[in-house]
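Tip: read the tokens left to right.
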């Protein structure tokens, strides 16, 4: 089976064939760093990082680049509001970005280029376009002339004559065509600026992604991704700039994720329903949020609600408990080395589930189906664990390996047996309480023994008396 990805450029699923066998280049449009990112922003950061994990699982070498837009009107306004330099605002929110990305267990990109660190590259790029006749300058602003680029509209499938010029296009009488967009912006009084052949100013937004993707991945690279709101005009404009200059295909595959709603409403400042990852991480463990974000296919809309996230919390608890219980059996040497028919059955089931997992991910990263395989194995394993007799060591280990390689490795879900949640009882405490209960029982102090059993039960741990002694079990 080979990986298929839905390419916005062709509007169909295509078999993924990298441009070369050395490395797969991925560029994902990153955040404008002027505030905390919200749960909707998190969706592309997370799903395309899962794409990276999956490509690496399939033995591709990946170079992953995601940018920080550290200069634009929003950053400047925020700096004025806070009485800071624009660069101080950018630095602050880049730090905050990493804190929230860590909560969600989003692995690091290979490069995080920043627009303001590439000003001379940007100027050179615009000069290149200028030499080829794709630009015109008016009063210190430099525009891209879309009439000169015959493929304009190929990604968003826009018919330029048909669309009305709306909110997404800046109206400007100086433009030759309403779709022309700014490459270099003249500085207004009091704004940060850089010197350029066109006077003091700063780069437009679209140009940084064309320049920085070329710098780190080359003129042509494999995958360009971002939210579906970026298809037009941002990605359309990136294609125009890059292909006009290089004369080559820019990105081969274009991937876009769907929107996220909050309780079936659009997230917006005016509705006051913006949900930041920072706030959500105070209430839920990162893996719970991650599970929620992966619970719908990335191209489908996703609705956040308390019920949905609570469901993700329950799902993660099921996995955490199972993994805890298996670890415990292995640590206590509470297993057998013989394979009985039940053990054999679970091994076969496990193999089948791995196949289903890979099939789902190969199908344009179908994470909801991939997640469901984790729970199918949990169900089968819990049934196995509750049957009579000692459990086979290799079978237990193969179940753990599955969660390690696929749940953690590919989907990035961290289990609580590895990362103890705050306020949760530790393994050491459990053992200490069991020991105290044993002492109480030896002294025929049934009251204390019962109290300890009850305390553990309140923390979700039941005690089973077995031939090998007492065994705690998370439920
Ligand atoms: Zn971009």
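Filled-in amino acids:
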């Amino acid at each position: 089976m080979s990986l298929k990805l839905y390419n916005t450029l062709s509007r169909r699923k295509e078999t993924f064939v990298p441009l070369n066998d050395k490395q797969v280049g991925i560029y994902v449009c990153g955040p404008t760093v002027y505030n905390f990112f919200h749960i909707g922003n998190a969706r592309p950061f997370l799903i395309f990082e899962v794409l990276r994990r999956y490509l690496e699982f399939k033995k591709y070498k990946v170079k992953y680049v995601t940018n920080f837009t550290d200069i634009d009107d929003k950053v400047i306004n925020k700096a004025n509001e806070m009485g800071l330099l624009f660069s101080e605002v950018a630095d602050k929110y880049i730090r905050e970005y990493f804190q929230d990305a860590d909560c969600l267990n989003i692995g690091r990109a290979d490069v995080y280029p920043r627009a303001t660190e590439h000003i001379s590259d940007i100027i050179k790029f615009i000069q290149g376009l200028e030499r080829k006749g794709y630009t015109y300058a008016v009063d210190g602003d430099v525009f891209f002339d879309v009439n000169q680029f015959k493929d304009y509209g190929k990604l968003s499938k826009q018919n330029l004559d048909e669309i009305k010029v709306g909110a997404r296009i800046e109206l400007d009488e100086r433009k030759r065509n309403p779709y022309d967009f700014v490459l270099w912006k003249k500085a207004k009084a009091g704004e940060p600026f850089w010197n350029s052949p066109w006077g003091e100013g700063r780069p437009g937004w679209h140009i940084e992604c064309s320049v920085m993707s070329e710098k780190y991945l080359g003129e042509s690279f494999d995958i360009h991704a971002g939210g579906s709101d970026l298809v037009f005009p941002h990605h359309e404009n990136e294609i125009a700039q890059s292909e006009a200059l290089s004369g080559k295909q820019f990105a081969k595959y274009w991937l876009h994720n769907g929107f996220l709603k909050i309780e079936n409403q659009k997230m917006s400042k005016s509705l006051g329903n913006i949900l930041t990852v920072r706030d959500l991480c105070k209430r839920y463990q990162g893996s719970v949020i991650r599970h929620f974000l992966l619970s719908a296919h990335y191209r489908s809309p996703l609705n956040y609600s308390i019920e949905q996230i609570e469901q993700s919390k329950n799902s993660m608890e099921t996995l955490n408990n199972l993994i805890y219980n298996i670890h415990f059996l292995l640590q206590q040497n509470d297993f057998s080395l013989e394979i009985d028919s039940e053990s054999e059955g679970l091994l076969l089931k496990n193999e089948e589930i791995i196949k289903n997992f890979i099939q789902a991910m190969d199908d344009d990263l179908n994470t909801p189906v991939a997640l469901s395989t984790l729970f199918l194995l949990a169900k089968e394993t819990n049934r196995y664990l509750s049957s009579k007799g000692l459990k086979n060591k290799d079978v237990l280990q193969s179940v753990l390996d599955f969660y390690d390689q696929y749940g953690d490795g590919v989907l990035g879900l961290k289990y609580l047996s590895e990362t103890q949640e705050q306020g949760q009882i530790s393994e050491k405490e459990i053992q200490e309480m069991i020991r105290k209960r044993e002492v109480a029982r030896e002294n025929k102090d049934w009251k204390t023994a019962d109290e300890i059993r009850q305390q553990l039960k309140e923390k979700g741990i039941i005690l089973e008396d077995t031939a090998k002694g007492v065994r705690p079990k998370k439920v």
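Residues 306-331 form the longest helix (26 residues). Residues 418-423 have pLDDT under 50 and may be disordered.
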